[in-house]
Specification:
With 432 residues, this protein is of the alpha+beta class. It has three domains: 126 residues, no CATH class; 121 residues, Alpha-Beta Complex (Adenine-n6-DNA-methyltransferase TaqI, Chain A, domain 2); 162 residues, Adenine-n6-DNA-methyltransferase TaqI, Chain A, domain 2, CATH 3.90.220. It is 33% helix and 19% strand. The strands form eight sheets. The protein has a four-stranded antiparallel sheet, covered by helices on one side. It has a four-stranded antiparallel sheet with strand order 15-21-18-19. Strands 6-5-9 form a three-stranded mixed sheet, with no helix packed on it. Strand 12 and strand 13 form a beta hairpin. Helix 2 crosses helix 4 and helix 4 runs antiparallel to helix 9. The longest helix is centred in the middle third of the chain and has 46 residues. The protein is elongated, with a radius of gyration of 28 Å.
């Protein structure tokens, strides 16, 4: 843990450099551009390139081939013919409208995209790729059942355009500098994965083997438990905890009323009702029938979509279970111990086995009741719960620091692209 923590604190940042400006500027009369280099021009996108509609391609027509088929979100298949020339830019038109992809290979564009290549522009395509990232075309939408990017609205975007050799220099500079940033961001993303893996490993060990490294062990005979302390018990979860399913119906939602907790409210360790849907008192009363009223110390467990997410009820605010969750309650157990046990590899392995080959990720209450779990004495549950929570909190704090560093890198990346394509910095010699 110490080695991973040190890595989280390591100052691996791209230090912002001071770049010189162009020797002379003039007003662009465009608010977002401000002043531009004196020999550049402020031009609408319509004067820079043409956005061509991609051809429609039915899903069952796609075949193996060398051409990558693009949709608004990126590659969706391959085909044996193309209608573009490499390289090209693909701009999302529906769905993830405004999203810009660059492809150095031949692309067959489907009808949810706009396409531009060297047939439709004299500009350097890599420079145009970076410029369109600054255009924020995802903010330009026509109101309809499926919001989308209108070509004329996109054409109205005004950007700063310099000579072609400078466009190439800017593209080369940004290719190099953003690659450095991307490498650092990838390292930090990997560090977050390692921190999460380490946290899970430490907590799993605690909830299955206890905190005493010298305690006598026994073979549990269970695939997912293996050895456990001799004085512990093990067996189906329902021997020690009550599992109650939600009522399988959707209540009417209101602007105000009693909270309804579904899978969206159990992503953290504590049930979060801040963004929960609301329903009436009468519906609430109906939904808590049969002992289903959540109490402090109960655990709300996701059994659909985000299967395995679990959160503890930690205050008295009334709420009822919505769809796709269940309630787990133990009268004489430590709820925090169970919470960390449910989020450990012991249960995760059993979940994976249950869902092998499943198209939809879901389990039922009967399967939850059959989870094989280790159960230490209550006094040990208290100590293990405290240790596990300390591990969780420590790693969570480290992860937050790494996430902040990633956000700063991303902000710097965005600012660097904007400064280069708008001429705020002169990178002509930097690209050499």
């Amino acid at each position: 843990m110490r080695a991973v923590a040190k890595a989280a604190d390591r100052n691996e940042e791209v230090r912002p450099r001071r770049f010189r400006p162009y020797p002379e500027y003039r007003a662009s009369d465009i608010e977002w551009l401000g002043a531009i280099p004196a020999h550049w021009h402020a031009l609408s996108l319509k004067r820079v390139c043409r956005l061509s509609y991609g051809e429609s391609l039915a899903a069952d027509d796609r075949v193996d081939g060398d051409a990558v088929v693009f949709g608004s979100n990126g590659p969706v298949g391959t085909h044996n013919r193309t209608n573009t020339e490499a390289p090209c830019l693909i701009v999302g038109r529906k769905g993830s409208f405004g999203k810009v992809n660059y492809s150095a290979d031949a692309v067959f564009a489907i009808d949810t995209t706009f396409v531009t290549d060297k047939r439709y522009t004299d500009a350097d395509l890599r420079w145009l790729f970076y410029t369109l990232q600054c255009a924020r075309l995802d903010r330009v939408s026509k109101d309809s059942a499926i919001p989308g990017l209108d070509r004329e609205d996109a054409y109205a975007f005004v950007t700063a355009v310099g000579p072609i050799d400078e466009q190439r220099a800017i593209a080369a500079f940004l290719d190099r500098e953003t690659a450095k940033i991307d490498v650092l961001m990838a390292k930090k993303e990997r560090l977050i994965e390692l921190l999460q893996e380490k946290r899970t490993a430490l907590i799993t060990r605690a909830v299955t083997r206890g905190l005493d490294p010298n305690v006598p062990m026994k073979d549990s005979g269970e695939k997912y438990l293996r050895e456990v302390p001799k004085h512990w018990e093990e067996g189906a979860l329902s021997r020690w905890w009550t599992v109650l399913d939600c009522k399988h119906r959707t209540v009417p939602f209101l602007d105000d009323g009693v909270a309804v907790a579904s899978i969206g409210e159990v992503h953290g360790l504590k049930v979060d009702l801040s963004n929960a849907n609301r329903t009436s008192i009468s519906e609430y009363q109906s939904m808590i029938e049969g002992g289903r009223k959540p109490q402090v110390g109960d655990i709300i467990y996701s059994r659909n979509a985000t299967v395995g997410e679990a959160a503890i009820v930690n205050d008295d605010e009334p709420f009822c279970m919505g769809q796709d969750v269940s309630l787990i309650r133990g009268a004489s157990s430590q709820p925090l111990f169970l919470l960390h046990l449910l989020r450990s590899r012991v249960v995760a392995g059993q979940l994976e086995a249950l869902m092998v080959g499943s198209t939809f990720k879901r389990i039922n209450v009967g399967q939850i009741k059959k989870f094989i779990v280790p159960v230490p004495p209550k006094s040990e549950q208290d100590d293990i719960a405290q240790y596990s929570q300390n591990v969780y909190d420590t790693v969570h704090s480290l992860i937050e620091r790494v996430q902040i560093a990633i956000e700063r890198l991303n902000e710097y990346r965005t600012a660097l692209i904007s400064a280069a394509v708008t001429g705020k910095i002169d990178v002509r010699k930097e690209a050499e």
